[in-house]
Amino acid sequence: MGSSSTDEKMGKKREDENDIIYVGNYSSMNGVALYLNSGYGSIRVSTNVEHDFDCLLKWMMSLQANVTHIELNELTSGRAFIDALRVIDSNYFNDAWMEVFKDANYEQSEWRLRANVLRKILKSVLKYNEEICNNVISKNILPNVMVIARDGSKEEIIKFIRIVVAAAVNGPGKDGMIKNIFDLEKSVQHTLMLTIQGLEFEGDNIGELEVECKSAVVGGIVGDRVV
């Protein structure tokens, strides 16, 4: 009992098979900063594109109750991203916003037209991150929409989803979004944590922005797993 109390105060690290569990409450800003910047908080970067891609698709599917599969062409056309954003914040990504895409043909075979739709979506979600979440996403991590539309690059789609995740966990509905993540399998949670850690921001207060944005999921998940 005394050991457990000490663990809570110290935020001691324990390992359970392949999972790293942190004892103590790291949901505060300072706790998350410690988690992200300490050796205890480092997580091996995944190099398995297929695994990460599948996990991030599971997260996107979890946003809508009746969606059990997302085809690659739904991503390369932008349709899946539009649907996700409508769930993330229907007040911002509303019917008026949808008017921009009223003439979009999501079955379009011409990749340049698909790239144009993706470009508009990306512009909107970047604006959302800046205006609503107060985070300016770094140009260094932006996806290449032409490569997505033309080649269906999973690496670039992962980059696109990362920016959508940033909007989800920092917007007005972030509590519900983070709660939804808790219900997903551990491999998906882990991939989302890596995704959040891969975010980069611009601006004078870049350090504070990174901690604040990353704390949304990382702090929530770690704080929720107190043992």
Task: Tell me what you see in this structure.
- The structure is a single chain.
- With 227 residues, the protein is mainly α.
- The protein has a domain at 47-204: Actin-binding Protein, T-fimbrin, domain 1.
- 60% of the residues lie in helices and 4% in strands.
- The chain is built from twelve helices and two strands.
- It has helices spanning 2-10, 29-37, 49-62, 72-76, 79-88, 95-98, 111-131, 145-151, 154-170, 174-182, 186-197, 206-224; strands at residues 13-16, 19-22.
- A two-stranded antiparallel sheet has the order 1-2.
- α3 (49-62) crosses α9 (154-170).
- The longest helix is centred in the middle third of the chain and has 21 residues, at 111-131.
- It is globular, with a radius of gyration of 18 Å.
Structural class: mainly alpha
Radius of gyration equals: 18 Å
CATH superfamily of the domain at 47-204: Calponin-like domain
The biggest sheet amounts to: 2 strands, antiparallel
Can you write the helix and strand succession as a string? HEEHHHHHHHHHHH
Overall pLDDT level: 78
Q: Oligomerization state of this entry?
A: single chain
Strand content: under 5%
What would CATH call the architecture of the domain at 47-204? Orthogonal Bundle
How many alpha or pi helices?
Answer: 12
Strand order of the largest sheet: 1-2
- The share of residues in helices is 55-70%
Q: Low-confidence parts, pLDDT < 50 over ≥5 residues?
A: 2-44, 222-227
In the CATH scheme, what's the topology name of the domain at 47-204? Actin-binding Protein, T-fimbrin, domain 1
Q: According to CATH, what is the class of the domain at 47-204?
A: Mainly Alpha
| N/C terminus separation | 12 Å
